[in-house]
C-alpha cells in the first residue's frame, strides 16, 4: 500500500451518494437531495428545449427548433416502425422516457454533476413502469390471448412447454435487464472516470496519461449516454409491440 | 487500510453502505422525486411542446405540398406557353412563306410586263436600224457608181483618151448590173 500511503484515495462510488441538498442528516421521502437538484435541472433543460424550441413555430426551423423537431420525429419514427400503427398512442410516453433518459445521461457528464440514471432506483422505476404498461395493455388488448406469446405455435409440440417456460422466465427478467443495462452503463462510466481522475491526482507529470484516458472515456461516455437512452427506448417499443401488435415470437 | 478509513471518514455512514445504489433507505426519496420530474416532463411535452411541434410539422408538410402543387401547375403552364409559342412560330413561318410566294409572283408579273415592253422596244429599234442600214446600203451603191464613173473618167484621161461622160456612165451601169 505504498501508493495509498502517498495519498492515493480512490473512492469511485462516493459520487453516487445521495445527500440532502440543504444540509442536515435526515433523509425523508420528500427531502430535496442532490439527485432532486439534477432531476430538476433535467426538467428545466427539457422544458426550455422543447417549449422555447417550438415557440417560434417557424416553417424553416432555427437551431433549437431543429433539435426539438429532431427529437420528435426520431421517436415518432421509432414508434411507428417498431411498435406499428397501434403503438402510436404510446408516443408521448416514449417521448417522456427518451427525453428524460438522454437529458439526464448527458447532464450527468458535466463535471461535478449527478446522473439520476446511474441509480438503480430510477432505472428500476422506469423499467417496471414499462413492464406493467406492457402487461396491462397486453391483457387489455388481447385478453387471455396475450398469454399466446409464450406458446410458440411454430415450434414442434413437444418443445412448446419448454419454450413456454423459457419465454415466461425471459419475460419476467425483462425489467431487471432493462433497468440494470441503463443504470450499470452510466454508473460504470462515471466510476471509471473517477478512478482515472484519482490516478491523475498523484502521478505528477505522468498524469498526462490518465488525463488523456479520461478525455477518451469522456467521448465514449457521451456516445454511451445517447446509445443507452436509445436502447432503453427502442426496447420499450419492442416490448410494447408484443402488447399491441400482431407479431408474436 | 488507508482507503477504507478515508471512505469511512469522508462519507460518514458510507462504510456500511457499499454501493449507494443499493442503499434502499434512499429509494422512497428517489422514487418520489423521479415521479414528480416525470409527471412535469409529461405535462410539458404533451400539453405544450408536442402539439406545437406536430402543428409545425403539419404546416411544413402542407407548405411543401402546396409549393410542389404550385410548381407542378407552373410547369404545366410553362409547357402550354411553349406549345403556344411553337404553334405561333409555325404559323408565322407559314405566313412568311405565303408572303414570299406572293411577292415572288408579283415580281414575276412585273418582270414579264417589263420584258414584253422591252421586246417591243427592241423590235422597233431593230426595224429602224434595218431601215437605216438599207438606206445606207442604197446610198453606198449610188456612191460606188459615182466613184466608178469618176475613176473610169480619170483612167481614160490618164491614158490620153477623151472621156465621154455618157459612154462611161453607160459602161459603168452595164458593169454594175453584171
Layout of helices and strands:
The complex is a heterodimer of chains A (249) and B (178).
Chain A: H1 2-5, H2 34-55, H3 63-83, H4 91-108, H5 120-142, H6 160-200, H7 208-244
Helix pairs in contact in A: 2-3, 2-4, 3-4, 3-7, 4-7, 5-6, 5-7, 6-7
Chain B: H1 2-11, H2 14-17, H3 27-158, H4 165-177
Helix pairs in contact in B: 3-4
Kindly describe this structure.
With 249 residues, chain A is mostly helical. In chain A, 67% of the residues lie in helices and 0% in strands. Chain A has 7 helices and no strands. Chain A has helices at 2-5, 34-55, 63-83, 91-108, 120-142, 160-200, 208-244. In chain A, helix 2 (34-55) crosses helix 3, helix 3 crosses helix 7 and helix 5 runs parallel beside helix 7. Chain A is globular, with a radius of gyration of 22 Å. By secondary structure, chain B is mainly alpha-helical. Chain B has one domain. Chain B is 89% helix and 0% strand. In chain B, helix 3 (27-158) crosses helix 4 (165-177). The longest helix of chain B is centred in the middle third of the chain and has 132 residues, at 27-158. Chain B is rod-shaped and about 185 Å long. The model of chain B is unreliable at 1-16 (pLDDT under 50). At the A-B interface, helix 2, helix 3, helix 4 and helix 5 of A face helix 1 and helix 3 of B.
Keywords:
heterodimer; A: 249 residues; mainly alpha; 7 helices; B: 178 residues; disordered N terminus
Summarize the structure.
With 249 residues, chain A is mostly helical.
Count of DSSP H/I helices of chain A: 7
Multimeric status of the protein? heterodimer
| Total strand segments of chain A | 0
Largest sheet of chain A: none
